[in-house]
Amino acid sequence: MRVSLVEPGAVSSGFVANAGAGVDVDVDVDVDVPTMVAAAGAHSPALANYVARTTAAFSPAAAQTPAGAAAAIVELLLAETPALRIQASDGARAFVGRKLADLDGSAVFTETLGWVS
Are 20 and 33 in contact (CB under 8 A)? Predict the structure, then answer.
């Protein structure tokens, strides 16, 4: 048995729309993001930053397509000797590269903290 880890990164799909972040995809979800953020109380600023970052990262202009992610997975499945780990997009490769080079985790912590602060 072989096992592979696929890290697709951001994929422009219905995922974010289903979470209510307002990304324009072909999913009809009725979520009032400003109301959701206001209801978060003391966490409103962090939630607002997270929604803004997620909306940008998963937008069709920034994220890979579902077909692109699927193509990487199919290529892996058809490989005679599949890799243990693949990143299916340039964004995923860049982030994993930063994680692997960050021996104590401080750089990745600082980067991801910026997603909500």
Answer: yes
Rg (CA), the chain: 17
What is the pTM (predicted TM-score) of this model? 0.69
Residues paired with 7 in a beta bridge = 87
- Retrieve residue 101's tokens: 């080079």
15, containing H or E segment = helix 14-19
Q: Is 76 helix (H, G, I), strand (E, B) or coil?
A: helix
CA-CA distance, 97 to 100, in Å (whole number)?
5
The residues, ordered by sequence, that sit 6+ positions from 27 with a Cβ below 8 Å of its Cβ are 14, 17, 18
Sign, CA torsion 89/70/84/78: negative
In order along its 117 residues, the chain shows pLDDT tens digits of 889 999 998 998 877 666 555 545 454 555 678 888 899 999 999 999 988 888 888 888 889 999 999 999 999 999 999 999 999 999 899 999 999 999 999 999 998 888 887
Q: Residue 42 corresponds to which tokens in the numbers above?
A: 């003391």
